[in-house]
Every structure is written in C-alpha cells, then in structure tokens.
Amino acid sequence: MLEKKARIADEAEIVDEAIVSRRSVRAFLPDMIDDDTIRDILAVAARAPSGTNMQPWRVYVTKGETKQRISDAILNSGIRAEKADWDEYRYYPTQFFEPYLTRRRANGFGLYGALGIGRREVDKMRAQHDRNFVFFDAPVGMIFTIDRRLNQGSWIDYGMFLQNIMVAARGRGLHTCPQAAFAPYHRQIRPVLNIPDEEIVVCGMALGYEDTSKPENAFRTDRVPLEEWVTFSE
C-alpha cells in the first residue's frame, strides 16, 4: 500500500508540474520541432473528452513559408488589431466589468512592464501585440478551426483539447502560447490554408522552445485564491 501511494504521489507530481509550468511564452528559439513530435502531441491531446465523441477539432500545422505567408497576410492587411472585426465569434465581452477588468489590466501592465513599455507608449504596445502574428518567432504555428454548425458544447470540448496540447508540449520540454488574436483575421488566413467556409477560426497557437533570454518570458501571472471562487457544500 505504501509503495502504491508513493507511486501515485510521483505520478501526480509529474502531471502537476506539466500543468503548473504551462504558461504563455512570447519569445521562442528558432530550433525546429520534428513532425513526429508534433504528431505525438496532437495524438495525445485528441484523448480530450467530447460530447458523444464528436471530436470537433481541426488543426492546421504550419512551418516555414506557409507560416510566413499567414504572418504577411495579416501584417500587410492594414487592419490594426483594435479595428479587427470579430464577426465569427467574440472572445471578450463588449464591456469589461469587475473583477475581470482589474485582472485584465494587471495582466497587460505586468507584461508591458516586463518589456519596459510605459502605459502611454501605444506604438510599442501595438508592436508587441503584432508579434502574435509571427507566432512570437516560434518555428511552429498552429491554426485551429471548428465547424460553424456545432454548438457551445463543442467549444467547451475544444478548450479541453487545446489544454491537452499545451500540457503534452510541456511534457516534452516545449512551450506554447494560445492566441485568440488570429480569429478576427480569418479572411486573411483562409486562402493561405484553404480553410473551407463552414469552418470558423478558433485561435492560433505558437509551439517551440522558450527563449529564456527575453524579458517577456520572465513575466508570470498570478491566480486568484480558491476561497474567492470555490464553494464546498455537504
């Protein structure tokens, strides 16, 4: 029994470390990731639960020239992020409210502070945001889509799939950054990847090895204490 408990504790520590060490990395090394590793990550992630096993995810894995064409199409579109049209779905509320407004501001100020960007340096903020569209220099950029005929339940399933990718990547010493910023640029992305009209762009994701020399990767977000959002009842 003691041996079994020790084994369970060791396994829990490994899983917990993969989850806790996951974070949004915003600067990557150019070191390439081989296709077999990417396939392994996606195959493991596809064990995510989905209602009646519908598995609503579709993934476009891009590297090299294709990834660059996505970046060019967005950055050369002339559409600034604050003017981009979220006409497929809205990620954020139209009007932020508490406690979410405070958390959002703390996240933004913390990231820009790590980069030495002041609160009124709008051009520098925009330049940093635009780094989303080069996948923060990661060697692999993924675009995720879902059939528009599916409903909210499948979007919940999709979130679990995305989390599995990020945790599986950590188990292999890789990092990720999930990027909703790609969604409003579906018109620029579709022709590059030949995405059918019935598919909605959910988000993008950068995958690669962290560049630990970059200040933005020193930034850490906090988490609200359990007491503020958990209720136990008996």
From TrEMBL:
Cofactor(s) listed: FMN
Top-level lineage group: Bacteria
Nitroreductase domain: residues covered: 19-209
Ranges in a coiled coil: none
InterPro entries: Nitroreductase, Nitroreductase-like
Alphabetical keyword list: Flavoprotein, FMN, Oxidoreductase
Family from the record: Belongs to the nitroreductase family.
PANTHER family for this protein: NAD(P)H NITROREDUCTASE YDGI-RELATED, NITROREDUCTASE
UniProt protein name: Nitroreductase
Source organism of this protein record: Mesorhizobium huakuii
